[in-house]
Automatic annotation (TrEMBL):
It is found in: Cell membrane. Residues 428-439 have a biased composition (Basic and acidic residues). It comes from the Bacteria. This is PurR-regulated permease PerM. Residues 399-439 are annotated as: Disordered. The chain crosses the membrane at residues 50-68, 74-92, 104-125, 191-211, 252-270, 276-300, 307-324, 344-371. Its main location: membrane. Keywords: Cell membrane, Membrane, Transmembrane, Transmembrane helix, Transport.
């Protein structure tokens, strides 16, 4: 019996209670693990990201403008030379390619002809001014006498003593500001010297831009990393083409303004009609500011020479010509040439005037046109289908272009690169003959 009970006890497996599993302790709150960026709303994080990048861009642009203002004697002549090169480069290219004239000789002939044309125009305008000012001075003296008669016999009833007191006060003010007047005269003398120096620099820069413009562009492009060269070469070429189109269109607009206002002054009997047309032509290259100045000058000449009625008619002619330019010529010609909205042109001129005065008003629109063309070219990756760039960098564009999702379908850049001749030994650009807009 005992043995059977013992046997049954052995068969019964008694499992002892195991230790309870340890429950992990709750993590204590640690402020160092708090990630504030993840708890910020998405809109706030995006606004902050855009804000600091925008501030860096504004700071960089501000530093660049400040640095350029310190070397304005170099920057302004180069910009003037660039505008003139955009105007004269088609003439040089035509003589070089179609007439087989060596490029250096073509540049010399074009530059000498341009300077001769400008000198002849200024000489004729100066002769007309000197001849017209004699009659105009007589009319001006007659107008002054009428003003004096109105002052003495009109409602003011001034006497000689009152006029003498005004003259004495003016002389006292003149003597008290003699030092300021002398300093202003010295500053004007210095400004004339800077203008002469800038003119010589602009002429030299114009010669080399016409002679070696493409080589200068390639030198700047080759300073960039190899993969960035095709895009930047195409972008700079497209920007230069936009500048050339701007200068051509501005020439046409300025010529139409000069003809309209000049002929209006001629038919109204306003003296100095031809010099006035020349001033309108030159002033039209400065958007808005030039038009206001030359228009006011035309109305003033009509007022001095022919009286109020003639001046009002001249004002109507000026307004008609300028409105035709703003509402017809600018949208139809300039807008298509440089792809800029009229509001963008007005804001660019206003901003350029506030930053750099008259030079800012002169260069604001062409710079904006170039920046607009370069930005559109780069953002649209236009170099991948640009035949001019593919001919230069075909193998490099095919190697750097992104792979398409379909392995059996090649990208447009690779297809075009395979069809275009490309250098095999090195991806360095060759020197083809660019078009008139690309020169």
């Amino acid at each position: 019996m005992k043995s059977s009970r013992l046997e049954r006890l052995r068969r019964i497996r008694v499992s002892l209670p195991s230790k309870p599993a340890e429950i992990p302790a709750a993590p204590s709150p640690d402020l160092t693990d708090f990630k504030s960026a993840e708890d910020m709303p998405y809109a706030v994080r995006m606004a902050a990201a855009w804000a600091w990048r925008f501030l860096i861009i504004v700071a960089a642009v501000g530093v660049l403008v400040w640095a350029l203002s310190k070397v304005s004697l170099l920057v302004i002549p180069v910009l003037v030379a660039a505008l003139l090169a955009g105007l004269l480069s088609p003439v040089v290219n035509t003589m070089n390619r179609k007439l087989a004239v060596p490029r250096g000789l073509a540049v010399g002939i074009t530059l000498i002809g341009f300077l001769a044309l400008v000198t002849a125009g200024l000489s004729v305008a100066g002769q007309k001014l000197s001849a017209g000012f004699t009659a105009l001075w007589t009319q001006a003296l007659s107008g002054i006498e009428q003003v004096q008669d109105w002052l003495f016999n009109g409602p003011l009833k001034l006497t000689n003593d009152d006029l003498q007191n005004v003259l004495d006060d003016a002389l006292v003010q003149l003597r008290g500001n003699a030092t300021n007047i002398l300093s202003e005269a010295i500053s004007w003398t210095s400004a004339i010297g800077q203008i002469l120096t800038g003119t010589l620099l602009a002429v030299f820069a114009l010669i080399f831009l016409l002679l070696d413009g493409r080589k200068i562009g390639l030198f700047l492009v080759n300073l960039l990393p190899r993969r960035a060269r095709p895009a930047m070469d195409g972008a700079l070429t497209r920007g230069w083409g936009s500048l050339v189109r701007y200068v051509r269109v501005q020439m046409v607009v300025a010529l139409i303004d000069a003809i309209g206002i000049g002929f209006g002054a001629f038919f109204l009997g306003v003296p100095l009609a031809m010099p006035l047309g020349v001033l309108v032509f030159v002033g039209s290259f400065i958007p808005i500011v030039g038009a206001l100045f030359t228009g006011a000058l035309a109305v003033l000449l009509a007022l001095v020479a022919n009286g109020w009625i003639n001046a009002l008619i001249m004002l109507a002619v000026v307004l008609l010509v300028q409105q035709a330019e703003s509402n017809i010529l600018q949208p139809l010609i300039m807008g298509k040439a440089v792809s800029l909205h009229p509001l963008a042109v007005v804001l660019a001129v206003a901003g350029g005037t506030m930053l750099a005065g008259i030079p800012g008003a002169l260069f604001a629109v062409p710079l904006l046109a170039v920046i607009n063309a370069v930005a559109k070219y780069l953002s649209g990756r236009a170099w991948e289908t640009d035949e001019f760039v593919i001919e230069l960098y075909g193998s490099q564009i095919a190697a750097d272009s992104p792979k398409t999702s379909d392995p059996g379908k090649a990208s447009p850049a690779a297809t075009a690169a395979g069809a275009a001749p490309a250098p095999q030994a090195s991806p360095e650009p060759r020197h083809p003959e660019p078009t008139a807009d690309e020169e």
